[in-house]
Amino acid sequence: MPLTIVRDDIVHQDVDALVTAANPRLAGGGGVDGAIHRAAGPALAVACAKIGYCPTGSACITEAGRLPCKFIIHAVGPVWHGGTRNERALLAACYAKALELAVANGCRSVAFPLISSGTFGYPKGQALGVAVETIGAFLETHDLAVTLVIFDSDSYAAGQQRFADIAAFIDDRYVGRHLDRFAERRRRQALADADFSADCAPPCPRRTKPAGRHTEPGKAWKSDTRFSFATPFARHPPTLDAFIADRGETFSEAVLRLIRERHLTQVECYRRANLDRRLFSKIRSGKNYHPNKRTACAIAIALCLNLEETQDLLATAGLALGRSDKFDLILTYFIVNGQYNVFAINEALFAFDQPLLGA
Questions:
Q1: What is the pLDDT at residue 132?
Q2: Mean of the pLDDT values across residues 201-211?
Q3: How many CA atoms are closer than 13 Å to the CA of 65, on its beta-carbon side?
Q4: Catalytic option among 8, 14, 16, 33
Q5: pTM score, two decimals?
Q6: pLDDT tens figures, 220-236
Q7: Between the CA atoms of 274, 279, 280 and 286, what dihedral angle is there, to the nearest 10 degrees?
Q8: Which tens digits make up the pLDDT trace of 15-42?
Q9: Which residues pair with 73 in a beta bridge?
C-alpha cells in the first residue's frame, strides 16, 4: 500500500495507529506528543506509566485512550547533536520499529509525524529524507498504508532547500514562467487543431499540368478527370467502426506487456509504483481502464522506463509529459537522471507543492 505525505494535524488522521514522537520516559510533553496525550486523555498516561521507559531508537505500543484509532505507537527519536552521535541510524531505527509494531498488531494504516524534528532539533529537511527512505524501504515488502504528516511550514520550506538542483532544472525549462499562459495555450491549441485537421481530412485532389500539354498565353489548361490521392482508402474511406477496431494497445495491455518484458511480478510493480493493491487490480482486469496522470506516471517509474518509453505509455491513456507544468518537469528530471525511487520522487514533489505519485 502507498506512502502519502500531507500537511495536516496528525490527531485528525483516520488510521488504525498514530505514531507519536515520544521521549524515553513516555511522559508526554510539548509538540506532537503533548497534543496526542491531551487528545487521548489520562488513560494514555496510565498505559505509558506501566511501560515506564523506551530507549532511543526504539518504539512501544499502547491503546489509544479517547482517540478513535486503535493504538498509539510511541517512537523515541534521537536528540540532534550535529550528526556526530549516530543520530541518522537511531532515527531510522525508531521508524522501522514503529512500522514493525503496526504490522505485528494487525494495523492496515498508520500515521507518522516528522520524528525528532521539533524540540529534539533534528534538521527538518534531513529528518524528512530519513523518514521517506525508511518507510519506503519497508513498504517494498509490506502492505501497509502510511501517512507522513508534516505540520509546520518550516518542514515544507526545508524540503525545498534540499532540491536546489531540481529547482534549477525547472527554471531552465519551465515554459509557464517565461510565457503568457493564456497566449501559449491558444497557440498550442491552434497547432493541435491544425495537426488534427491535416491528419484526419482526406487530401484534396491536386490540379497539375499534364506532361506534354501546352497552353497558349492567357488560356488555362484543363485538368484530367482522373484524380490521384495520397491515402490508400481515399476513394472508399473507412467507417468509424473500422477506425475504432484498428485502435492500438490500451493502457492496461501496455502495462501488462511491459511487466512481462521487464521480468517483474505484478506485486513488485504496484509496490514500486506506490499504488494500492485494489487500484492495481482494476488496471489489470479492466482492459479499457483509463488512469489519471499520477497513476500512469507512477507505473512508468515502477517499470524504470526512459523518457521516450514513458511518453509512449502515457500516450496509450491520452496523456503526456510537457514543459509547462512543474509536476511534469520534476518527473522528467528524475527520469533523465535514471532515478526511479518513487518515494524519493514523491519527497521532491511534496517539496514543490505538487501532487504525489501513486498514493
A1: 92
A2: 48
A3: 17
A4: 33
A5: 0.72
A6: 444 444 444 445 555 56
A7: -150
A8: 999 999 999 999 887 788 999 999 999 9
A9: 19, 61
Question: How far is Cα 340 from Cα 330, in angstroms, rounded to an integer?
Answer: 12
Helices 293-302 and 277-285: angle between axes, nearest 10 degrees: 90
Long-range contacts formed by 335-338: CB under 8 A, 24+ apart? 335/300, 335/301, 335/305, 335/306, 335/307, 335/310, 336/307
C-alpha cell at 144: 501497509
- Three-class secondary structure assignment of 318-348: CCCCCCCCHHHHHHHHHHHCCCCCHHHHHHH
Report yes or no: 158 and 123 within 8 Å, Cβ to Cβ.
yes
Is the pLDDT at 285 greater than 80? The verdict is yes
At 352 the three-state DSSP class reads coil
Mean pLDDT of all residues belonging to the chain: 83
Q: How many helices (H) and strands (E) does the chain have?
A: 16, 6
The dihedral through the CA atoms of 40, 3, 316, 194 has a sign that is positive
Cell numbers linked to 341 = 525511487
The verdict on whether 353 is a catalytic residue reads: no
The predicted structure's pLDDT at residue 187: 56
pLDDT (average), residues 167-176: 72
Residue pointed to by grid coordinates 507522513: 148
DSSP string, 15-61: SSEEEEEE-TT----SHHHHHHHHHH-HHHHHHHHHH----TT-EEE
**DSSP for 61-121, written as a single string:** EEE-TTSSSSEEEEEEPPPPSTT-SSHHHHHHHHHHHHHHHHHHTT-SEEEE--TTSSTT-
pLDDT band, very low/low/confident/very high, at 91 (cuts 50, 70, 90)? very high
Distance of CA 207 to the CA centre of its chain: 54
355 HSE (CA, 13 A, CB side): 11
Q: What is the pLDDT of residue 311?
A: 95
State residue 215's pLDDT score. Answer: 47
If phi > 0 it is left, if psi is from -120 to 50 it is alpha, else beta; for residue 358 that is: left
DSSP state letter for 4: E
Scan for cell 520522487, then name that residue: 345
